[in-house]
Design goal:
By secondary structure, the protein is α+β, with helices and mostly antiparallel strands. It folds into two domains: 7-122, no CATH class; 125-235, no CATH class. The chain is built from six helices and seven strands; from the N terminus they run αααββαββββαβα. The protein has helices spanning 7-11, 16-35, 42-57, 90-123, 189-199, 219-235; strands spanning 69-75, 80-85, 125-129, 139-146, 151-163, 168-181, 207-213. A five-stranded mixed beta sheet has the order 3-7-4-5-6, with helices on both faces. A two-stranded antiparallel ribbon has the order 1-2. The chain is elongated and about 70 Å long.
């Protein structure tokens, strides 16, 4: 995200107004992205930044511990990144905290704007099953349009599970394997699926899902990310 990251608060604690300016510039860039229906990676970055800022502000006496650390090198033997703790006085920490408290509600408002755009777009993207869906759906294909370029992308997907200490998450790994003109007989979902079955023998009866959109949304920044989230919701709801 342009000029807006967690380190912004550390780098600008000596000049409060400069820090405010950089944060507002980053939020303005996010607003411009959302106004043009470009959601990612901006929305995800805003959410992560807000989570980091609020966690630091809620850390209390551990405020210093939770501040970002500066990368100073790489240990070639252990292949670990080396960090050093940012050394700051109590007055400097207070300045960082003040800037974070000022910025947090503005970042939250930016997130809400992005979510509003997301929800509207999601309502105008339809998901349809192509043919019969087999019992095995952990691998398959997505057919996702790119209206701005007049293309239909065939995206192969594979689901996986990763977990942390508290819960498990599902991830969707994708790879674009074919591209068709968006309009024409060859790009009909049924025809595309039949071609995939004849050419790729490892999935003889693949789960295949087709997405359509009411509007010409950007493919990389919007359609593909929402299609992936929408598919995960359908598969494991």
């Amino acid at each position: 995200m342009r000029q807006l990251r967690l380190e912004t608060f550390i780098e600008n604690f000596k000049d409060y107004e400069s820090g405010q300016y950089r944060i507002l510039a980053g939020l303005k860039h996010a607003h411009e992205e959302f106004s043009n229906d470009r959601l990612y990676p901006t929305l995800g970055e805003l959410i992560q930044l807000y989570q980091n800022v609020t966690e630091i502000l809620n850390a209390g006496d551990n405020f210093r511990r939770d501040l970002p650390k500066r990368i100073i090198g790489l240990d070639l033997q252990s292949h670990q990144v080396l960090h050093e703790t940012v050394q700051m006085s109590n007055e400097e920490l207070q300045a960082v905290e003040e800037l974070m408290r000022w910025a947090a509600p503005k970042i939250r408002d930016g997130i809400e704007e992005g979510k509003t755009v997301y929800n509207f777009i999601e309502e105008h993207i339809q998901l349809e099953e192509v043919g019969l869906i087999p019992p095995y759906v952990d691998e398959g294909y997505l057919l996702v349009p790119d209206p701005q370029k007049g293309l239909l992308h065939v995206v192969r997907y594979e689901t996986s599970i990763f977990s942390n200490a508290n819960q498990k998450f599902r991830n969707l790994k994708t790879e674009t394997i074919k591209t068709f003109p968006l309009k024409g007989l060859d790009s009909s979902p049924w025809h595309v699926k039949q071609q995939l079955v004849s050419e790729l023998a490892d999935l003889p009866n693949p789960a295949t899902y087709s997405f359509t959109s009411d509007f010409d949304y950007p493919y990389i920044e919007t359609l593909l990310p929402i299609a992936k989230r929408k598919l995960l919701g359908k598969l494991y709801s």
